[in-house]
Design brief:
The complex is a heterodimer of chains A (about 260) and B (about 300). Chain A contains six helices and 15 strands. By secondary structure, chain A is of the alpha/beta class. Chain A has three domains: about 5-90, Elongation Factor Tu (Ef-tu), domain 3; about 100-210, Nucleotide-binding domain of ferredoxin-NADP reductase (FNR) module (Rossmann fold, 3-Layer(aba) Sandwich); about 210-265, no CATH class. In chain A, helix 4 (about 170-180) runs parallel beside helix 5. Chain A is globular, with a radius of gyration of 18 Å. The relative contact order of chain A is 0.14. Helices cover about 35% and strands about 20% of the residues of chain B. The relative contact order of chain B is 0.16. In chain B, the strands form four sheets. An eight-stranded parallel beta barrel of chain B has the order 3-4-7-8-9-10-15-16, surrounded by eight helices. A four-stranded antiparallel β-sheet of chain B has the order 5-6-14-11, with no helix packed on it. A two-stranded antiparallel ribbon of chain B has the order 1-2. Chain B has a single domain (about 5-55, about 70-195, about 215-300), classed as TIM Barrel (Alpha-Beta Barrel). The radius of gyration of chain B is 18 Å and the shape is globular. The chains are: A alpha/beta (about 260), B alpha/beta (about 300). At the A-B interface, strand 1, strand 5, strand 13 and strand 14 of A face helix 1, strand 5, helix 2 and helix 9 of B. Flavin-adenine dinucleotide (FAD) binds near residues 48, 213 and 239 of chain A.
Chain lengths: ~260, ~300
């Protein structure tokens, strides 16, 4: 019988990134694809959906941004501490075989799964424009990692402390106008992703977004992550969905539901 | 012919989405109906919103699942719009599941949810994973089960199905008690237990609530027996629920006396397509064995031979 039991292992490495983010290296061969997530479990502290931010050589990584009780507990973990997970769950980003140039637009911890994708793409010989925006320079994530992977990194900040003072969709707009891009990928704040999906649609370029909703089970049972009006269940049919489909989802960029199912 | 009837409500297929599975939003209920469910049941709704238990709330194991979602819901006022959406868009009967902690509240929620015009109201008196809060589930005492039924019946004109617990020595007197107070049907059963799953590397129970209701293939024989006893005692229409994953499982429920099979955990194993697949499998079985209708198969396991 199908069974997604928790696997519990000891952390191999804990790395502090910029902007309250901590990357955990977990020694386990998940066979994940970029965009998929795990349900991460800290006994006594709860369980949350977290994207996979890398996998190679029998180890995978997750990068967690401290925003509340669970993620703060994660940020206090040390090498050798035990961590539980089940997964990988959900859909993944798809790099078209016939593509040569890809654009990725990340914001916040959304850059984590995109970094994983960018590494796979450059390894396949694709040209990657990695666009990242943040409030300020200190909150930009994974820029060194992306440069090392061979991506062309384009940064912008709300306060102009790094790159131009603008939002990441503005940078994408310029990239789309000046380069031939085969596909756009985005993960981050929903207002940003909506803008990216709209820009891609206008430019008639394929696009994939990572749409997150409150998740409890991760396996298509509890119904917590289903979106209006099409009833799509995002833990199994998402989080990675085509941009055009996202634009059909009424709540995309406007509201979501909390842990009780109440619209917020 | 796969059509069946639940207290006058017509279903195209004898498969019903069980409460608590993909039932938080109206859009999701409608999507499951479109995937082939004969009827869909909402997550149980209470008067006030409830946060439910902290995660992890679901633990799978080799033979099924243990859950302690803890009846989280946004409260009846917020949820009315979800039920209305489902009623309007599902294209199949919609069952609104309700629960409460007092008799008076049961009446109030039933009255309130009726405004959304569901086809059936399912009265959940049997959730095992909120015992500490609510004391023994109402479904464990024929007297209390009867009072709840009477109250709900008085508060609405919509047919009511009372959802019973398998966690009793004998389900028959409880089934009889709710029938006497006017229940139009029975849903049997809710989850078994509670049970516990311990992760041995973490050396701790997986569920934060420690215990939860057991569902899935492991509980099917218990569910079939409960349906059999409830049918024998009442003859009421029954939604036979517990461990149904295949058409053959559904036929087993029907032969025990169910008019339709409820499916919950099965969605985990086979996705929302389980409803159309189970329907096809029931049809295949009927063709093979020469049954013409669901009604013809219903309760046949009771015949002495
Ligand atoms: C598919 C998916 C992938 C995710 N990937 C990452 C990631 O790579 N890195 C990362 O830092 N965060 C990720 N998140 C968000 C992460 O689950 C939450 O931020 C969670 O860790 C917050 O828990 P908390 O107790 O720290 O904060 P809380 O105070 O409980 O919540 C803070 C906010 O986080 C969100 N949140 C809380 N619980 C959940 C939940 N169960 N499901 C979805 N959102 C929730 C809500 O918007 C809430 O307002 C992802 C979410 C989803 C759905
Ligand atoms: C995750 C989950 C949540 C559930 N929530 C509810 C609920 O809110 N109300 C209810 O009456 N039953 C609830 N149940 C019980 C199911 O409706 C069903 O009676 C039980 O799981 C047995 O059927 P199954 O083996 O097909 O899952 C829940 C079950 C699961 C697995
Ligand atoms: S998180 Fe439970 S159905 Fe998606």
């Amino acid at each position: 019988m199908k069974n997604d039991e928790f696997i519990v292992v000891r952390l191999e490495e804990v790395h502090r990134e910029s902007g309250d983010t901590t990357t955990l290296t977990i020694p386990y061969k998940l066979n994940s694809k970029p965009g998929q997530f795990v349900m991460l479990w800290l006994p006594g502290k709860g369980e949350k959906p977290i994207s996979i931010s890398g996998e190679k050589e029998g180890k995978f990584q997750v990068s967690v941004c401290a925003v509340g009780p669970f993620s703060e507990a994660v940020s206090k973990l040390k090498k050798g501490d035990k961590i539980g997970f089940r997964g990988p769950f959900g859909t993944h980003f798809k790099i078209p075989k016939d593509s040569t140039s890809l654009a990725m637009v990340g914001g916040g911890y959304g850059s984590a799964p995109l970094s994983y994708l960018a590494e796979e793409a450059t390894a396949q010989g694709k040209k990657v424009y990695f666009i990242e925006g943040a409030r300020t320079k200190a909150r930009l994530l994974f820029t060194e990692r992306m440069k090392q992977a061979g991506a062309e990194v384009l940064l912008c900040t709300d306060d102009g402390s790094e790159g131009p003072k603008c939002y990441s969709p503005d940078v994408l707009k310029t990239v789309l106008e000046t380069h031939k891009i085969d596909k756009v990928f985005t993960c981050g704040p929903e207002i940003m992703m909506k803008k990216v999906a709209e820009l891609s649609k206008e430019a008639k370029i394929r696009c994939e977004v990572s749409m997150e909703r409150y998740m409890k089970c991760g396996i298509g049972i509890c119904g917590q992550c289903c979106v209006d009006d099409i009833g799509l269940c995002l833990c199994t049919n998402g989080p990675i969905i085509p941009g055009d489909l996202a634009l059909e989802i009424k709540e995309f960029g406007s509201y979501h539901r909390d842990s009780t199912g109440k619209k917020v | 012919m796969l059509s069946t009837e639940l207290a006058g409500v017509k279903l195209k297929s004898p498969t019903v989405l069980a409460s608590g599975i993909l039932g938080v939003t109206g859009a999701s209920l409608a999507a499951v109906a479109k995937a082939g469910a004969g009827a869909v049941t909402s997550k149980s709704i209470s008067l006030q919103g409830r946060k439910g238990h902290p995660t992890p709330v679901i633990a799978t194991y080799s033979q099924g699942m243990v859950n302690a979602v803890g009846l989280s819901n946004a409260g009846v006022d917020e949820t009315l719009a979800e039920i209305e959406f489902a009623v309007k868009n599902a294209g199949a009967p919609v069952i609104a599941s309700i629960f409460a902690s007092t008799i008076t509240e049961f009446g109030k929620v039933a009255g309130a949810v009726s405004q959304a015009n569901p086809d059936i109201i399912e009265v959940n008196i049997s959730c095992p994973n909120v015992e500490d809060e609510f004391g023994r589930p109402f479904a464990c005492d024929p007297g209390i089960a009867a009072v709840v039924t009477k109250k709900v019946k008085k508060s609405t004109n919509i047919p009511i199905f009372v959802k019973l617990s398998p966690n009793v020595p004998n389900i028959a007197p409880i089934a009889k008690a709710v029938q006497n107070e006017g229940a139009d049907g029975i849903t049997a059963v809710n989850t078994v237990g509670p049970g516990m799953v311990i992760n041995i590397e973490a050396a701790a129970p997986v569920l934060t609530n420690k215990v939860g209701g057991v569902s899935g293939p492991a509980i099917k024989p218990i569910a079939v027996k409960c349906v059999y006893e409830a049918y024998k005692a009442t003859g009421l229409p029954i939604i036979g629920t517990g461990g149904v994953t295949t058409g053959r499982d559904a036929v087993e429920m029907i032969m025990a006396g169910a008019s339709a099979a409820g499916i919950g955990t099965g969605v985990y194993y086979r996705g929302p397509e389980i409803f159309s697949k189970v329907s096809e499998e029931i049809q295949e079985f009927m063709d093979k064995e020469g049954y013409k209708s669901i009604d013809e198969m219903r309760g046949v396991a009771h015949e002495e031979r």
